[in-house]
User: Fold this.
Amino acid sequence: MPSSSHGWNFDHSYAGLPDVFFREQAPSPVTQPEVVVFNEALAEELGIGSLSSDLQAQAVLLGGNQLPPGAQPIAQAYAGHQFGHFTMLGDGRAILLGEQITPAGQRFDIQLKGAGRTPFSRRGDGRATLSSMLREYLMSEAMYHLGIPTSRSLAVVATGEQVYRQPIQTGAVLSRVASSHLRVGTFEFAKRFGDESAVRILIDYALARHYPERVGSERPALALLEVVMEKQVALIVNWLRVGFIHGVMNTDNMGIAGETFDYGPCAFMNAYDPKTVFSSIDTQGRYAYGHQARIAHWNLAVLAGALLPVVDPDEELALELVRASIDRFADLFTESWFRMMFDKLGLVIAQPSDRKLVEELLLLMRTHQADFTHTFLALRREQQPEEAITEDPDFQQWFERWTQRLKEQTDRTAALDLMTRSNPVRIARNHLVEAALEAAVAGNMQPFHQLVRDLQQPYRDTGEEPAFQSAPAGFDEGYKTYCGT
Ligand code: AMP
Ligand code: MG
Assistant:
């Protein structure tokens, strides 16, 4: 392989789907591509490590001015329910270069987000702002290092062009890396704009790509629904574990591979309150922290609706099977959620009354607006949190009971280890994210790089991270995050 190829090794399995699923579309060149951040570790993993020392290539290839060897750029078609309403969408500002096959044999979509207009752009400009692409880079890398399935970010390249937002901002292209960009909305699209064979082909494709162990199931559509449900339950439970609020859980933003993706108005919760929501457009709190499981269930019902016609030739039986599947969600979720909460509390071997222990703690935390991350870190350290909650006699009583339960764990090392792995020291606190982005946009990348580094070891406890242990008083009250900026 010539060294100038940097190890690009593209395949294009998605482009092998029926034509209705995509349009050929090259990225639109930008005036002055300049690399703002590049993820060397990820490049290495992808097999394009030599790109790390070639700034010029990074800029032209990941800014969209030149195609890497073997790329076949396309925009993917999809639909989706946005805030409950069905819409035709599609990649309006993202272009898939292809699927990179890594030296380890894994397959990853390489997508340029903000790469210019496509047939799906509608009235949009196809571009993205530097600030929002850096935000996605930061948040996705934070999630990755928290051990939560997610798309990743290879680079952010500033375009040297302005994008017309309120106010006018610098443009940028994010190179996004994901197991795939298949979403619930891809199936909604197939059902609405394809035919039955398109739905079947897509199901087989999704199973082969993500769940090969389920290929050959008696009812492929049902097998897919079940596995996506299991993956989504696991994902949402993980979000809840670290206080993550996705912010825009429309069906086009729910991935079939079970990864977190489409980082728009997402944020981490500080004070514990299930109603927490930061997204400027989510005025009803549809996607609030504590609604995320319900919304995942709703989205899965939409997926079920798209798959229904091909589940079984016997329509009644198909409906019955799909219902039974979807109805498992509540139990599956509750079970996994409690298991995750037991992990946070170090209860390796839980007993039925421990559910009450969890519920009582959360009620106390909510009443006292206790900081979510700090409270659990304190417990992990077997200390009391530095919070008003400790002045509540009910909390003191709770703490005693919990300490007792912890003592009863036969394997104490396992209990402490479980707490260490379940309770991060560092999350991407809103005020830190904003400070880093503000500096970055003003030309100082140092705080951004520092924050990315800090978030690479979210569970390591050095005992001295005050910046990560609280949010400035009142910061969250007026804090708003934004969607497609
Ligand atoms: P999102 O909110 O990022 O999930 O995007 C919803 C839809 O709007 C998708 O079809 C995007 O491709 C499209 N979109 C968002 N921003 C832009 C933009 N600046 N130009 C064109 N399409 C966009
Ligand atoms: Mg989206």
In short: Residues 151 and 178 are 4 Å apart (CA to CA).
